[in-house]
Design brief:
This protein is 71% helix and 11% strand. The protein is built from two helices and two strands, in the order E-E-H-H. It starts with 5 loop residues before the first strand and ends with a helix. 0% of the residues are buried.
């Protein structure tokens, strides 16, 4: 095969008007095919790289979500412990008020709910 081998492309309009004729060498066809292959390879590589980046971002968001969930769980436990401590203090306060003869008011915890 010769790279200087020539091919002709003819475009014939339906009404038989002027025929368009293009001359292309095998070298140009091979060059265009190579350029197209490089462009397609770069495009596919870029898209795979972007998918990898998105996957890394997703993983970091998953880790952050897990950390925040753990923090919320800790805060929930602390809140429950404080609520129990407040109830104990209120019970002790009522007992003290009864012991000294003061009629207790409605507990603070029931006003908070």
């Amino acid at each position: 095969m010769k790279l200087k081998e020539r091919y002709f492309i003819k475009i014939v309009p339906p009404r038989g008007e002027r025929v368009h004729r293009f001359e292309v060498t095998r070298r140009r066809i091979v060059g265009a095919a190579g350029l197209l292959a490089v462009i397609l390879s770069a495009s596919v590589g870029f898209h795979f790289w972007r998918l990898h980046q998105a996957g890394a971002q997703l993983e970091s968001l998953r880790i952050l979500t897990a950390q925040q969930h753990a923090q919320l769980s800790t805060i929930d436990k602390q809140t429950d412990a404080l609520r129990l401590q407040l109830q104990k203090v209120q019970t002790q306060n009522q007992q003290i008020q009864q012991a000294i003869g003061i009629h207790p008011k409605r507990p603070v915890a029931s006003r908070l709910q």
